[in-house]
């Protein structure tokens, strides 16, 4: 028998028990943004802590935060110089409204065919629990009493609330969380037929730009045409955010941008991208963006500036003939490696100041420090290990994606100084965040299988950092 | 004795009675936008109707409208082919809040020095009532039993509410209101030491432009950079409303604009304009507008485009990382002779359509038909008659102003086909619309005097239309 056959047999034999356990966990409505569910989030933490203990983890702790608790579990390798791996995910879930759109109650897990329906089935309880099955398969097949790598799990309880305490949690426990590589299991794969792993996430900087003109609204008949209108001037500046090739026109914005490599571009190009399907998800009729890049490259590998909102003067029905006293807008910049949020903030501020005309007072504020982008290059040994593990599990070529959004991985990478790789089994039609969230049950078992291989692959991966 | 000495003597002799009458009228709180004051507006109409009858007008009628009543008075000339003059003004007043800022109660008329304080003292009851005194002086001094012109007065009751029924009122009574010239007594003079008359008012077109992109808000991390953002595109279009010389950049916008004449420019230039005072009123730090024109020319004699409000996506605190589904703005265009509101609407619509990129659906709506500008050229005989009448009353040179705003005069001009001239005795520091509204009592008497001359001057003015 091959190792693969042994791993599959073990996982198959334990599949029913795995899904029974998962259903128990999914029945706990651990909605982190709902204050009335705080006890449930706590119960959810306790549940996964117990499950990890039953799986054999010698050390499992529930870590309090200023909000909801996280769970930390650790299973040291026998070898003192083994690679240390930190798995990241979360045990809290999204709200369920509009609950009337669910075919079965969100916290009564229901199997239909090969799918398990419940809030949290894919995001992220299913992907967390397969790690408990994976390490048991790894041990059973290798005959080890401890994993080939020093295994740590961090399962936070506030990811769906924006991880407000993750930074202080990670900094406060940096010694316990120290690792050589982070395995993120909170993202999605291309599709169930196209196994992929994610190589990076965009960072983000959020800005609020306010222009002030007259000290109060003044009549546009009496004064129109003879003083600066802050709303007009704001539009004139925001219109210059992009050039005619849809590139961000802020000086210095692209200075540190790592160009997409030909290899990555080729691999992205092999993904079965269907523009019509994508446009349906984007609720748009035409694709449009930076010239010279495909849609996937634009959302994954290129930085952007997007206006998120604007306000100023009259809104609503009717006319109000004023020159408004002020106008403002929020803009988010998505960043790619190796843009630095603080440098981008500086560039944005200087750009606004340079374009602000006399008679207008500009104010530029940023929402916190922003989030740095993460990118694990294709040649990275940790990514190689993940690729091999997935290829063994799926028996087919593994391709690469990135995420256009921004996530907590950057905190782990920055604080712990470790590269981030992804083992994720959620697929886009799993409706995470929406009604009728589900998970493909065979994929969760593939996830367990892939991770069982991954601990071997990472035991001697080459230079990780 | 000269005619002037006789007129002055008559007005002087009747001044106390005039102000006693005015105080009685000012005590009626005829606030047209306050539904609780409808009875008071009605009482105000009845009061001025009675006062005009007492002054000798042979025909006085209270005309109902869908809102508040107007008053019409008529005093035919003895000569059947006499010039017909329609005086326009209003008997309703602005609200009084914040009432605590008034030094004396707004509806308890109070004399301090040469000033009479009350809501409506200058806008517009004082300027209406002096017409009753003026016609009596005109008759007394000329020895006529009927005025030298066929005199009509229209005193509406909804001007401060935007004259919502004026158009239908004027159209419904067009035969009764037919005239050769309209004398508007609802505007302001430069200052009490600088007698002026107004030669025109700007017209207005109000537009609402909405851009629609994705059929619902979408996540700016997942889709940002790869679809059109309707807010960004709206800003890009609105930024092109003006060129770098602050001219409106809509093709055809200036096609019909009557350039200010050198004579008018010279006369405007002789007004004692103080930019610091003007900026204080504009609540602005610097003047800015179309290159090649002074501030007064910009607000009086040049057309403009002003953004009055904008909306779209997130507003308020915090970030919301979306590409908004739609964004919109309101814009008002102030027009000068001989721009046509419907042509401007057409030009605006075509301009927006031409600039709307693929993937964006643009919607352009206009608020009613707009208001046409009015302009009575400096050489017009009616303006000559007003100028001579004012010069006789003030014993000094009369200069010219215009109004940046838009008013009901355009309705009278358009429906009745008559030129509009202005005899106005309000001055900018009269605080009409604000707390402590007042009127300069000697100016009201000057107004009566000027109008007493004006009926003679207009008796044979030359070709009026």
From TrEMBL, chains A, B:
It holds the Pfam family Peptidase_M20. The keyword Metal-binding applies. Transmembrane segments: none annotated. GO terms for molecular function: metal ion binding; peptidase activity. The keyword Amino-acid biosynthesis does not apply. InterPro entries: Cyt/Met_Dipeptidase (IPR051458), Peptidase_M20 (IPR002933), Peptidase_M20_dimer (IPR011650). Keywords: Hydrolase, Metal-binding, Protease. One of its GO terms (biological process) is proteolysis. Residues 200-358 form the Peptidase M20 dimerisation domain. Gene3D superfamilies: 3.30.70.360, Zn peptidases (3.40.630.10). PANTHER family: BETA-ALA-HIS DIPEPTIDASE, SUCCINYL-DIAMINOPIMELATE DESUCCINYLASE. This is Dipeptidase. It comes from Spongiactinospora gelatinilytica.
């Amino acid at each position: 028998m091959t190792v693969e056959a042994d791993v599959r047999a073990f996982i198959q034999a334990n599949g029913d028990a795995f899904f029974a356990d998962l259903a128990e966990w999914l029945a706990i409505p651990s909605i982190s943004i709902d204050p009335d569910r705080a006890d449930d989030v706590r119960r959810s933490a306790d549940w996964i802590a117990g499950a990890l203990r039953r799986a054999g983890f010698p050390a499992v702790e529930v870590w309090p935060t200023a909000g909801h608790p996280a769970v930390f579990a650790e299973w040291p390798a026998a070898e003192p110089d083994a690679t240390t791996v930190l798995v990241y995910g979360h045990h809290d879930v999204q709200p369920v409204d509009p609950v009337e759109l669910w075919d079965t109650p969100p916290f009564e897990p229901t199997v239909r065919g090969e799918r398990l329906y419940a809030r949290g089935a894919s995001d992220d309880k299913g992907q967390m629990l397969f790690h408990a099955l994976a390490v048991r398969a790894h041990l059973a097949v290798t005959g080890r009493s401890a994993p080939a790598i020093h295994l740590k799990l961090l399962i936070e309880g506030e990811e769906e609330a924006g991880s407000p305490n993750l930074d202080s949690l990670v900094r406060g426990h940096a010694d316990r969380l120290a690792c050589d590589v982070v395995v993120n299991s909170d993202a999605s794969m291309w599709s169930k037929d196209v196994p992929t792993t994610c190589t990076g996430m965009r960072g983000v900087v959020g800005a609020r730009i306010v222009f002030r003109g007259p000290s109060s609204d003044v009549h546009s008949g009496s004064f129109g045409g003879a003083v600066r209108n802050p709303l007009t001037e704001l539009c004139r500046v925001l219109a210059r955010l992009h050039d005619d090739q849809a590139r961000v026109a802020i000086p210095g914005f692209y200075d540190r941008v790592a160009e997409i490599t030909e290899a990555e571009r080729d691999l992205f190009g092999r993904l079965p991208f269907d523009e019509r399907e994508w446009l349906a998800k984007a609720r748009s009729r035409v694709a449009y963006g930076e010239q010279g890049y495909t849609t996937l490259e634009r959302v994954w590998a290129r930085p952007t500036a997007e206006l998120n909102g604007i306000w100023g003067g009259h809104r609503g029905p009717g006319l109000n003939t004023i020159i408004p006293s002020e106008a403002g807008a929020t803009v988010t910049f998505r960043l790619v490696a190796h843009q630095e949020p603080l440098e981008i903030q500086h560039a944005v501020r200087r750009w606004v100041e340079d374009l602000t005309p006399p008679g207008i007072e500009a104010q530029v504020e940023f929402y916190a420090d922003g989030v740095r982008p993460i990118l694990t290059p294709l040649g990275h040994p940790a990514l190689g290990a993940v690729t091999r593990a997935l290829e063994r599990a799926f028996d087919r070529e593994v391709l690469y994606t990135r995420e256009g959004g921004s996530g907590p991985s950057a905190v782990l990478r920055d604080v712990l100084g470790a590269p981030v790789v992804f083992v994720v089994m959620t697929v886009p039609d799993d409706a995470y965040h929406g009604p009728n969230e589900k998970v493909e049950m065979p994929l969760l078992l593939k996830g367990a299988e892939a991770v069982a291989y991954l601990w071997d692959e990472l035991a001697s991966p080459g230079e990780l950092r």
